[in-house]
Amino acid sequence: MTTNTDVGPRIGPEVTNFLGTGISTDVVVRADLNAYYKIWQFSLTVFVDQPGKGGDESPIDQEVYLDALQRPQKRDDWGHAFWKFDCSDSNSIPVELRPFRGQYMGFYPTVQITNLAHTPSGFVKMPDTSHREKVNVTKVFHLSQSAFTSGLYRARAIYNSPGAYSVSNNNCVHAFLDVTDASGIPIPRTKSTKYKQFNGLNCGDLGQDLRRSYP
């Protein structure tokens, strides 16, 4: 069972339970939190474009295509994971976070990756809309104000200091899960076991984990 102990913002010092008399605030299942937090209009929407056609744990899909000179070429499709925070009133969040509200955000390398050992600088693309038509998995999480702010601060930190991009150790899934972790949303960090050469976090496993964890 997925649980979360954050039961929402306090209205006043004398009120500690906003879920109703007799309902424990110690541990509340995420489904109940989602229904409750809709009142507060703080949300995190996550998107996963799984490799190829999607629907399984494959970390990469390879397709053969013809270039402009009609020569067979191979293109690797690793998929992509990205996110969007939104709230009904920008005045309810700190000023420094407002530029990131309502923005599609995702982590990329600054140049094309040439091999698994290649670690170019990374950057957060904003708005990140190039994979929207390819998304296989979308989930919306309604958050408390504190969880929303925590997650958005983490997204801002990655945007300001993205670090080097590494297919195995710091790719778009790592950034995605850092943001969801900071937002109080537990998602497994499943590493691929399908290929000997690669055993990192990937969009295939991430999509399947989201489907299983939050049906």
Give structural notes.
This protein has one domain (3-213). It is built from 4 helices and 9 strands. It has helices at residues 30-37, 145-160, 172-182, 203-213; strands spanning 3-4, 28-29, 42-49, 61-66, 72-77, 80-87, 104-109, 122-125, 137-142. The strands form 3 sheets. Strands 8-7-6-3-9 form a 5-stranded antiparallel β-sheet. A hairpin with a 5-residue loop joins strand 4 and strand 5. Mean pLDDT is 82; it is low at 1-28.
Order of helices and strands: EEHEEEEEEEHHH
Note the total helix count.
4
Give unreliable regions as ranges.
Answer: 1-28
Structural class: alpha+beta
Distance between the termini: 12 Å
Number of strands: 9
Sheet with most strands:
5 strands, antiparallel
Q: How large is the share of residues in beta strands?
A: 15-25%
Domain module tally: 1
Mean pLDDT: 82
Helix content: 10-25%
Round the Cα radius of gyration to an integer and report it.
19 Å
Please state how the strands of the largest beta sheet are arranged side by side. 8-7-6-3-9
Choose one word for the global shape: globular
